[in-house]
Each structure stands twice: as structure tokens, then as C-alpha cells.
Design brief:
The protein is of the alpha/beta class. It has 9 helices and 22 strands. It folds into 3 domains: 57 residues, Nucleic acid-binding proteins (OB fold (Dihydrolipoamide Acetyltransferase, E2P), Beta Barrel), CATH 2.40.50.140; 181 residues, Vaccinia Virus protein VP39 (Rossmann fold, 3-Layer(aba) Sandwich), CATH 3.40.50; 142 residues, OB fold (Dihydrolipoamide Acetyltransferase, E2P) (Beta Barrel). A hairpin with a 4-residue loop joins strand 10 and strand 11. The longest helix has 18 residues. The protein is globular, with a radius of gyration of 23 Å. Bound molecules: S-adenosyl-L-homocysteine.
């Protein structure tokens, strides 16, 4: 059968997060990005694999869209659901994933996010165009068309301040500076990152290639924008690298400071430009509280927090423990964590900057509890044995990727740990992501 053939049909199965199946003339095709029950057009790519082309008819699970960008913007997957329907849809996908991986825990619960609009405290936008050689766009990648960028003036998962700042910036540079072209490696404007804490502090990071344009007027006008929060810092990052990611080759603080303050469960955190912080602050509170309720207690305990980021868990849990040690690979995040501990007057928490894989090989530490909160790739499979060799009484495994979580969990179960508690938390409403929290005991 010809490659690139367009096939139409109904999505009859979806596996977490968005792996879809469509049957046509007894051939079963898999592709990404649709919703169960939708009638879609797909383009056959290779073998039984296909690519989503467009939605032809809505699924009966869908209602009218909550967002004017939802047809095109690749940021969200479930803007056409009521939040209640979204929750039950995600819950079904997660339950199926657990079942298929023989993870049976009777008390499993899917917990909703306390907020499902305006919840993101960070957004990373890309400069580009909505169609080839169109006017300057600044926004998110287009659904199923990674090279196009969709303007997002009415994005509802961020605070309105994001939309004001993003649109001002797009307008300011439109016709003035060229967007960076990934293929030809020409142009100036690359990324634009906004962070806004629940205290209303805003940090802006403009990412360009090295160039001699005078940005001072832009910074000045930016600071005069009418926003609800307060812009406390503007950072200009220069990046000439060929990589699509933001590589901070040179970082200049052009106004104020290069961090914002965030408050979480009574502690203060300095969040810098490049360090990790949970993107949904309100739901992060729920996450850490759920975790704290699951473990047996922290009194006189020794805690090891692997993948500690800016040290949120190390401190939120560690303040009640005898001592706590965080391990994190990003130096910027470790520096922030050390400062945060000082800010919070916690003298029993420490941090080391290292790859968990290396750190656990010969770390002299005797933890009662190990918290694991790896990035989306999960735990390096070659590190798991050494991690379990610490032989703690309990593990708390927090994961932002259920797919790698179910893979990693097996090693713990094989070595005699059992699930004491397991929950999923909808940290990322409107998207197809969610967080897993699992308490393992010997
Ligand atoms: N527990 C923190 C951060 C979790 S995000 C919180 O709740 O805020 C995962 C963190 O793991 C990120 O900060 C990332 O920089 C870090 N990381 C990724 N790979 C790592 C590795 N191999 N070794 C150590 N840290 C790593």
C-alpha cells in the first residue's frame, strides 16, 4: 500500500498518553495525537505507522472548545473537554497503563488539580512563523506541524500577564528583527521565556543569537507595560548553538535580578532562569502534601532526595527530618537550593551537584527514606541497582511520566518492595501529562 496514502476512520483505542489506533480494511494503524472516538484523517508513513492529518468529526466526549487556539496549538490536548470529562478520560488511560504493566493497587486514586486555568508559572515560547515566510509569530509549536509556530494571545493555562508580555514582544519585533531559521541558521530571535511566581514576581528571558541590535528601548517599553504582577528581572541569553534547546552561551542580566521568589508550604524559594521548578505551583503543594501523607513520618529520619532540582522536597520534607541530602545535576539549581536552605534557615539539609548515576555508586549515606523525582526519561536503568542497594525502609517515587514510571517500578517490585500507596495527580490540566506518586515499602 502506498506511503503517504490518506486514510479516514474512527479512533477505536488510545493508550497513554496519546497512542491511537484506527482500523481500515483490517489493517490496524497507530499514530499519535487524537482522542478516542474522533473521526480523523491520517497519512500512512511506514508499515502500520501513520501521522495525524486532521480531525474530521469530534468524539462524543468533546464539547465546545475552551480555547480559541485549540485546533492548531500543540500546547494542550484536552481543551475541548469539560474538566470533569478530562479527568475521567485521563484516569481511564492511567488505569489501563497500570493494568497492562501488572501494577495492581486497589486503592489507586486519580487526584484533580486545584486549578485548571491560568496555572502555569513558566512558559517557553519560540519565535517563528505561522506559515512559511509569514509574519513574525511568537508562541507554541503547531499541533502535528512542529516547524510552524502558533501565536497564543488568548492562552488560558497562563496568567493574563503572560499574554500581554508575549504579544507586546511579538509586535515590537515584527518587521524589525528576523526570527532564527533552524535550517539555514540565520536570523536573531530564538526563544522567549516568562516565569511568574504566585507572589506576582515576573522574570523574562529573551533568547537571541549574538547580534548588534540595540535592545535597550525594548527593555524600557517592556518595563512600562501594564501588567498585574511586577517585572523584577529581564535576562538576555545569547545562543548561537545549532541545538533547538536554549543553550545559555552568554547570559546578561539587563534589568533587576535573574531570579524570582516563590512561596510554597511556608518556605521561600529562589527560582532562577534555568533551574527546574514545578510548573503548577498550586498543584505542587498538593503533590508534596500527598507525598508527605504517604510516608511513615520524618521524625529522626535520614532523607535522600534524588533529582532534587531547587531543593523543594529536600527542604519541605527535610525540615521535619534529622537530616536530608539532595542530589541534582544542574549546578544553577544546586546553587539555588543551597541559597534557599539558607533563606529558610535550614541547617540540616545539604546538596551535591552530580549525576545521580555517579553519585549513588559510592555515596556514604544511610537513608531511611529515599525520594525519587526523575525527569521524563525516568531513572537511568543502570543506576537503579545502586539506588535500591541503599536498602531504605521506604521509597517515595514521584514521576512526571507514567510511562517510564511503570517501567522503573518493576525493578523495585522485583527486589522485594511493595506498593503501599499509589496516586496520580493532574499536575498539567488540558495536556495529556500527569504526575504519579508511589510509596514503596519493604
Ligand atoms: N524534585 C524537584 C525536581 C524534579 S525535576 C522538584 O520537585 O522540584 C527533575 C530534576 O532532575 C531536574 O532538576 C533535573 O535537572 C534533574 N536531573 C535530570 N537528570 C539528572 C541526573 N542524571 N542526575 C541528577 N539530576 C538530574
Amino acid at each position: 500500500m502506498a506511503k503517504n496514502k490518506i486514510i479516514e476512520g474512527i479512533v477505536t483505542n488510545v493508550d497513554f498518553p496519546n497512542k491511537c489506533t484506527l482500523v481500515d480494511n483490517e489493517n490496524e494503524y497507530t499514530f499519535k495525537g487524537a482522542i478516542l472516538g474522533q473521526k480523523v484523517a491520517i497519512k500512512r508513513t511506514r508499515g502500520k505507522k501513520a501521522k495525524m492529518v486532521e480531525v474530521l468529526e469530534k468524539s462524543e466526549l468533546e464539547e465546545t472548545s475552551n480555547c480559541i487556539h485549540s485546533d492548531r496549538c500543540g500546547g494542550c490536548a484536552y481543551q475541548t473537554f469539560s474538566y470533569k470529562k478530562e479527568l475521567s478520560y485521563k484516569e481511564k488511560l492511567i488505569r489501563k497503563l497500570l493494568e497492562e504493566n501488572d501494577i495492581n493497587f486497589e486503592g489507586f486514586q486519580f487526584v484533580e488539580s486545584p486549578v485548571y486555568s491560568g496555572y502555569r508559572n513558566k512558559m517557553e515560547y519560540t519565535f517563528g512563523d505561522e506559515c512559511k515566510d509569514g509574519p513574525l509569530a511568537l508562541g507554541l509549536h503547531r499541533k502535528n506541524h512542529f516547524h510552524d509556530i502558533v501565536n497564543t494571545p488568548e492562552c488560558n493555562i497562563v496568567h493574563e500577564d503572560f499574554n500581554i508580555i508575549r504579544e507586546f514582544t511579538r509586535e515590537y519585533f515584527d518587521g524589525v528583527l528576523e526570527k532564527y531559521n533552524r535550517m539555514r541558521h540565520t536570523g536573531v530571535l530564538r526563544h522567549f521565556v516568562i516565569r511568574r511566581s504566585s507572589l506576582g514576581e515576573i522574570l523574562i528571558n529573551l533568547v537571541t543569537t549574538h547580534n548588534d541590535f540595540d535592545f535597550s528601548k525594548y527593555y524600557e517599553e517592556l518595563l512600562n507595560l501594564k501588567v498585574e504582577g511586577k517585572i523584577v528581572g529581564i535576562v538576555h541569553t545569547y545562543n548561537d548553538s545549532l541545538s533547538d534547546a536554549i543553550v545559555p552561551e552568554r547570559v546578561e542580566v539587563v534589568y533587576g535580578r535573574d531570579f524570582i521568589y516563590e512561596e510554597l508550604l511556608g518556605l521561600k524559594f529562589k527560582v532562577s532562569c534555568f533551574s527546574f521548578f514545578q510548573t503548577n505551583t498550586d498543584s505542587a503543594k498538593v503533590l508534596y502534601e500527598l507525598g508527605r501523607d504517604m510516608i511513615s513520618g520524618l521524625d529522626n529520619k535520614v532523607l535522600l532526595d534524588l533529582y532534587s532540582g531547587t531543593g523543594t522536597i529536600t527542604q519541605i520534607f527535610g525540615q521535619y527530618a534529622d537530616k536530608a541530602l539532595g542530589v541534582e545535576i544542574v549546578k544553577d539549581a544546586v546553587d539555588a537550593a543551597v541559597e534557599n536552605a539558607k533563606l529558610n534557615e535550614l541547617s540540616n539539609v545539604e546538596f551535591i551537584c552530580d549525576d545521580v548515576f555517579n553519585a549513588v555508586k559510592n555515596l556514604e549515606y544511610n537513608p531511611d527514606i529515599i525520594v525519587l523525582d526523575p525527569p521524563r526519561d525516568g531513572i537511568n536503568p543502570r543506576a537503579i541497582k545502586n539506588i535500591i542497594d541503599f536498602n531504605p525502609d521506604e521509597f517515595l517515587y514521584i514521576s512526571c511520566n507514567p510511562a517510564t514510571f511503570v517501567r522503573d517500578l518493576q525493578a523495585f517490585l522485583d527486589r522485594g518492595y511493595k506498593i503501599d500507596n499509589l496516586k496520580a495527580l493532574d499536575q498539567f490540566p488540558r495536556t495529556n501529562h500527569c504526575e504519579m506518586i508511589c510509596h514503596l515499602v519493604k
